[in-house]
Description:
Layout: H1 5-16, H2 21-43, H3 50-72, H4 79-87, E1 90-91, E2 94-95, H5 97-108, H6 115-120, H7 131-143, H8 146-152, H9 155-158, H10 166-176, H11 187-193, H12 196-213, H13 215-227, H14 245-258, H15 293-301
Antiparallel strand pairs: 1-2
Helix pairs in contact: 2-3, 2-12, 4-10, 5-7, 13-14
Amino acid sequence: MHASNKYMIKFLNKFKTNKFIEGQLDNLFSILYYLFYIIKNFILVNDFEKYRIDDICNDIKKKINEFNNYLKISIFKDLNTFMFFFNTLIYNNEINIEKFIINLFDNILNNKYSLIYKQIYKQEYKEFKNIDYWKSIYITVIEKNSYYENFTNDENIKEVKELNKLTTILSDFLSDFLSFDDKNFHLCHNYIRHQSIEFNALFKIIKFIYFPFFAPLLDIYTLLRIFKQPDGGQRASLCFCYFGNNHIINILSILTNYINKYELIHSIGKVINEKDQVQRCLDFEEKKISLNLTKELKDHNLYI
């Protein structure tokens, strides 16, 4: 299997399509992220800057309308159902990632409109056909992600004394904000600033779900496609994957730590400082790296 740039674009478009649940989730949290990005800046606006307040209120209202319209064509259909799903992230006044992921796999993705479940059912290896196997991998990958550690230690979230109320605040906001008309639109500034701590926490939670949370789903889907036995064809022996650094780290971790049938031969090495320029390619000549693909393929094909 060779993943060209052209194939990669088609693959990503398929992953984001409205037909599949993974794409719906990505789009819904994308809208929420940009909505709360506007709100985050809105909290900093001074009362006397009324012209800015009105403009930003209009931007917020447009985003909420966009979210509500998209919600109707998603698997959730309405705000209450979506909030029930979102609420599983917070349990006993604590952020509970594992409970959220179990709900995601068991109740949301568990149907024919999930790209991942579709690929799981096509696997031949007994272990790979087990949904709980991939769910446990997903939980571990998330918990070992650097974003996760920063998220669970975030001071903005720790400032919120009653995390359980965040879902109600978000639900009320998405419902009530649209009730502001042209005559009382300026009141929405006070509405948001009154709960600025909670809104900052919601922004961090939504940002976490939107960025690092869905990335491993794409990585698991990629591996399931690679391992699948094509109808009337041969299982892949050689795969080129074009991904960013975090995706590569996830895939490498799954292959070497969990599936545990592969070993890393060459690497660009760790990036110690995030400000350092990332070396994205291996220079085979300069590093005098010898990689005999013919031998690697023959050896690999002995085991598949």
